[in-house]
Amino acid sequence: MFLKQRPSQLISEIPSHPKRQSRRRKSRRHFNSVVIVLIAIVVIVIMPASSFRNSAVSAFRSVATVGSPKRHARNVQQQQQQQNGCLTAQQLLASTSTNEYESDNKDESSREQQQQQQQQHLVLVGGGHAHAQVIKALNAASRPQNLKVTLIDQKASASYSGMVPGCIAEMYTHDDTLLHLTPLAEWADIEFISDQVVDIDLDEKKVYLSSHNNQEEGKKGNDDDYDEDDDTNNNTNNPISFDCISLDIGSTSRGLDDTPGAREFTIPTRPINKLVERIAQSEQDMMEENKRNEETRPPRIVVIGAGVAGIELSLSLNGRFSSKFENTQVTLLDAGSELLGGESDIAKATLQNIFSEKGISVLHECKVQEITEDRILARVNGKSTAIPYTHCIWATGAGAHSLAYRLQEKGLAATKHAYFSVNEYLQSTSHPFVFAAGDCCNIEGLPNGPPPKAGVFAVRAGPVLIENLTGYLRDSHSSTEHMKKFVPQSDFLKLLVCGDGRALGLRFGQAFVGRWVMEMKDSIDQHFMNLFKPENLPDLSEGEKFDTSQYDDKLATKTNLNPEEGAALLSRADDDVDYKDAFAVIRTMADDDEYCEKTLSFMKAKTAGVNRG
Ligand SMILES: Cc1cc2nc3c(=O)[nH]c(=O)nc-3n(C[C@H](O)[C@H](O)[C@H](O)COP(=O)(O)OP(=O)(O)OC[C@H]3O[C@@H](n4cnc5c(N)ncnc54)[C@H](O)[C@@H]3O)c2cc1C
User: Fold this and answer.
1) Distance 437 CA to ligand 1 centre (A)
2) Domains annotated on the chain, with CATH
3) Does residue 155's CB lie within 6 angstroms of at least one atom of ligand 1?
4) How many angstroms separate the CA atoms of 322 and 356, rounded?
5) pLDDT digits (tens, 9 = 90+) for 427-467
6) Contact 1, 66 (CB under 8 A)
7) Ligand 1 mean position to 250 CA, how many Å?
């Protein structure tokens, strides 16, 4: 029923709250029933018997055929002809019993019957990076008519982590980083339940929600990721049945409960939307404290965990705090012996230069043992050390979700760290009706092992998941004929915000630095987010095949520069580089091995020349 509406019309009709959605649905149903009853009364009281029969039939049809535009148009035409006196009641009856209409009617009713018999229910748990694309593709106009889709997420908006470090560095607002699920689901005519999934019955194929639990047990769900401030939870009294379920629930902060004081005193990176709020709050607290005291305390920011996220957070926090507080000091604690362990020497050296330029210090071989209100107690190179802090960020990487542990106990295949085990079709290796994508799963059987927990893989899994969920349901759950294997790329462009308007890019064993790298990152991130903004959602036309293209297919461009010119461009760090030209070189390198090899040899020669010089 949302078909053909302009997005702006949609937005003005979109309720912000699921309870309101269901109230609106109920009142629509109520309104329809009242209209039918009124028509029936008018017809019984006022009309003679023969015209009663005909009008009641056609009135009923016009209500029943909403959603079948062809039939609805014919009914309207017939009603108009009748009103104009062109068709008598008998003619109307006769016209509705022509062979053409009869067979159409039979087809329609047998199709409706078939649809009812084979009605399938797909439940999407979590509106993460992969599911956002599934929701968009399986909109009312494109999904099979017998497919009902329900989305469940504990939050009304999902965080796009790619823009979070930029938001911390105050380049974006918090809202810029959020993908609003309510209007997206509303546009797709997908039911959105804003609640937390606490359990799944794999035998009965039923999903249990936190609000259901609360009603039964009189308490709130105690999951760490539960958003206490979120008032959008529905009261769903009954568990939700499904035919197929897909999980894109992300991950949690690893080890937060294993280190004394970590949960109490640090700011964990997950849930990621809380990270932004907590950092803003801690900055505010410090400003107020400094105002109250005569002597101001400089920020001592310590980031625990030196993976890519920890490195990027050190840079963005340094950018944010040093622009507001004098003598800001940022320290990164690394359990290993070097940063960017799997990257090239050029990449490591470039990062080292940026850290030195900004005065960010790194403690390698650092094992954190306890955190108190103002100190981190650790062993650094085997020696006990107390590291003072004002702000401590827990960035130790991804850990499995509590729901994953629960489902593992119930027999759902999972790794020893409780990541759902899926095959290359993103289908559970133990329960074929369960699919999973993103951080929450491990893809088994890949020659190079499962990809790392990064949003880019969740994004790339989206289109494959769309094909496989619909393929699974289409083939009566029995074959992989209409499914596609997910082949994660072996390397990907890593883009790290430097916190000063520049970004650091890592790909092909090379490092790129500059404002143009930040502009390129911004254009990629904004392009992804724009796909889901209500104002950009297209008008839907019925019967359109669902879209399974990768989000950046339309960004594909080929460079006109030869490898030597391409290498020269990527080596530049000045502000005059046009990021579009540089991005075209990078994309051509990714698609064309020969071009890539030649460009790299020019870049390496240039670096060797600089080093000799
Ligand atoms: C600071 C930081 C920066 C990062 N930057 C990058 C980057 O630049 N590039 C990159 O590739 N990766 C980056 N990552 C990693 C990236 O965040 C994750 O890999 C990515 O978010 C995983 O996406 P996902 O779709 O699996 O899950 P998520 O995006 O985490 O989505 C999970 C969704 O499930 C919902 N949910 C969870 N549990 C339940 C439940 N029980 N019931 C209902 N709903 C539930 C959540 O509310 C959420 O909306 C970064 C991580 C951090 C911490």
Assistant:
1) 11
2) 7-117 (no CATH), 120-251+400-474 (3.50.50.60), 262-398 (3.50.50.60), 494-607 (no CATH)
3) yes
4) 15
5) 999 999 999 999 999 999 999 899 999 999 999 999 999 99
6) yes
7) 5
